[in-house]
Amino acid sequence: MLVDLKNWLIFQKDIYGEEIYIENFSKELILNKLEEKSKNIENIIKEEKIYKIEFKKSAKSVNLQWYNSKSLDDLNNCIKSCMECGLGKTRKNFVFGVGNPNADILIIGEAPGADEDEQGEPFVGRAGQLLNKMLEAIDIKRSDVYIANIIKCRPPNNRRPTNEEINECEPYLHKQIELIKPKIILALGLTAVNSLLKMEFKMSDIRGNLLDYRGIKLIITYHPAALLRNPAWKRAAWEDLKLLKETYSNFINK
After folding, report:
1. Model's pTM, two decimal places?
2. Is 64 left (phi over 0), alpha (psi -120 to 50) or beta?
3. What's the domain range around 203?
4. Is residue 206 part of a domain?
């Protein structure tokens, strides 16, 4: 209990400074909100169209054998020149993903930002620094996980990716998941969640619960960039991190 409290205090001080924010919320209320939508989640994510990876027969900018890639490096080499949506013309770098190729935990965000576009690596800006601290608070190293985004090129002005852009790029993410074989996915933000589950959610309805995505445990929390803008959400994010740590511990202790 004391260790958990210590980690929580270190987490919020490192990220938010000296101010302590206390928010009252009911786990029962959250579960009640989720109940109606959760009845539909299992059926929807089992639909064949969610599992299917479209083979891009019309693609001219990628190696058409990307679908048969046997490793993440092979996949990256096949698709890193992708120009199948308009973002290929405006990006500086294709941001494939980074981390342990055999990670038990896969972290999925929305899209690269300016720093990521510049460096070609996901979550290296302020939000990435916050993500590192969030992981450290539950004794998980960045190098132990794999980090990717729903799409691999930065939308201009960091706008939200369009459905067309997501549809073009998401099959690459599906292939990454197939190759990594994670035990847990941590989805950061509603764009990531809604893209994966093919439903429109409110964060208050969906986070704080252990879901299933293609047989993989799915945990949802706020995007670090959102936490930087809204410190009031830090308590809920800490609860999500504790759920991640508990779920991961259950896997490694089996």
Report:
1. 0.79
2. alpha
3. 58-252
4. yes
